[in-house]
Design goal:
434 residues, alpha/beta, Rossmann fold, 2 domains, seven-stranded parallel β-sheet, six-stranded parallel β-sheet, 17 helices, 52% helix
């Protein structure tokens, strides 16, 4: 069985965790011998970090990336996109020679990939939001549906969609999709506003499939009081953020940095903690974000007597390696959602700094809504008070927390049944007429 997984950005560690999980789940659904072709934003770089994957460049990027003319480039890009769509239509009608005339070798091979795929999966994550351009996503979905292939969206946090053009395009795409897997109820609401008849299911984030079940079993019975440990190990994950909605971005990010400086000082002074700044998105110089670079903006502001207990881990770690590293810690303060998920899956409790609704939704689902703070509202005093409260409550919450994490892991794996059922139903609904 040939499966395309599209729209990946695996230089982002969270996206990589999702992709690796999706592959495992799809192998559970369709067998170990599946052929996976991954369409990614930067495959030429990603292959250096994930050499085991079969990576190709996004079809949209193939059609526009080489166009550099500024004044008329936009028009040329539109023409190029229509050229690819015409080729896809020709190939879908088995007019292969006409399709080849419209494309170069790489573009043609990519379209043949889509034409010969049994299933197309749009990777999980948070990319169908209007903070980001949706052009490349729409283009991919339209090509997929031109070939009349079953299109499945893996675990998404998406919307809201307010721009009329986006709403119109997505309504058509969602209505024709075989299945849309969502991570939260809010995303489900956003889908139902556009396409009430869409086939949706709210399930766990795919990355919970990477959870270490032995570590979770141990964590459930952990009654240790972190405050009584001689030198607790605490990991802190940070990220740059510019999409503040209620405060000026410069003010918001400055307040975030100040709060983390104060928290770091507090954790060292009160608990004699060893602090490591480490994140799920770091150590890849070719990627536009490196959380370890941002961490230095915090650690360079620490007093000397505190700084000697603080390190910044700047290395790249693939998701499965990161889980093993984080498993050695007693607590994680996580800004990135997938740093939180991987840490929980390693049996480590998490305090979250939520920059999008997806984090709040997850922690409510886990029964941990009091152990987070909205990045829009963060300040040093509140952050320290809430982290202290979590630390003092750990012996009481461990069992229920990690029981819930086990359930999320089970839910992630059970999506294999949903996907296989949706695929079978799509085949029944799309049988050729006699």
């Amino acid at each position: 069985m040939k499966i395309i997984i599209s729209n990946t950005v695996i230089l982002n560690g969270g996206d990589a965790a999702i992709l690796i999980s999706i592959i495992k789940i799809l192998q559970d659904a369709f067998g170990k011998n599946c052929e996976f072709v991954i369409y990614d934003s930067q495959p030429e770089t990603a292959i250096k970090y994930y050499p085991e994957l079969n990576l190709r460049k996004l079809i949209y990027a193939q059609s526009v990336d080489s166009i550099r003319i500024k004044l008329i480039g936009r028009i040329i890009k539109l023409i190029s996109q229509w050229r690819i769509k015409v080729a896809a239509w020709c190939i879908s009608k088995h007019q292969f020679s006409l399709g080849r005339l419209c494309t170069n070798k790489v573009e043609y091979e990519s379209l043949i990939d889509y034409q010969t795929a049994n299933l197309i999966v749009s990777t999980g994550g948070t990319y169908l939001v209007e903070n980001y351009s949706l052009k490349a996503r729409f283009f991919d979905y339209q090509i997929s549906l031109m070939f009349n292939k079953p299109l499945i969206f893996f675990t998404q946090s998406l919307g809201p969609f307010e721009q009329p053009t986006n709403r119109q395009i997505l309504t058509k795409i969602f209505t024709r999709s075989a299945l849309i897997l969502l991570r939260d109820r809010q995303s489900a609401k956003h889908i139902q506003e556009l396409s009430p008849q869409s086939k949706i299911a709210v399930v766990a984030d795919a990355a919970f499939a990477l959870s270490n079940l032995e570590a979770l079993a141990t964590a459930k019975n952990n009654q240790d009081n972190l405050g009584n440990l001689s030198t607790p190990k605490i990991a802190i994950s940070v990220r740059d953020w510019s999409y503040f909605k209620t405060v000026d971005p410069a003010v918001g990010i400055a307040r975030y940095i100040q709060a983390l400086v104060a928290l770091t000082v507090h954790l060292v002074d009160k608990y004699q903690a060893e602090i490591t700044y480490i994140s799920s998105c770091q150590g890849i110089k070719e990627y536009w974000k490196d959380d370890s670079e941002f961490a230095l903006k915090i650690t360079t502001q620490l007093p000397e007597q505190v700084a000697k207990f603080v390190t910044v881990n700047r290395d790249f770690h693939n998701p499965e390696t990161l889980i093993k590293i984080i498993g050695e810690y007693d607590l994680v303060i996580a800004t990135r959602l997938h740093m939180a998920i991987l840490s929980l899956g390693a049996g480590v409790p998490v305090f979250a700094i939520a920059y999008e609704f997806k984090t709040e939704e997850l922690f409510c689902k886990l029964g941990q809504s009091e152990w987070l703070i909205d990045i829009e509202e963060i300040d040093a005093t509140t952050l320290i008070e809430r982290v202290d409260s979590l630390i003092s409550s750990l012996p009481q919450i461990h069992h229920q927390l990690f029981t819930n994490v086990e359930q999320e892991s089970l839910s992630a794996w059970q999506t294999s049944n949903l996907v296989s059922q949706a695929f079978e139903q799509w085949q029944l609904d799309n049988q050729p007429e006699n």
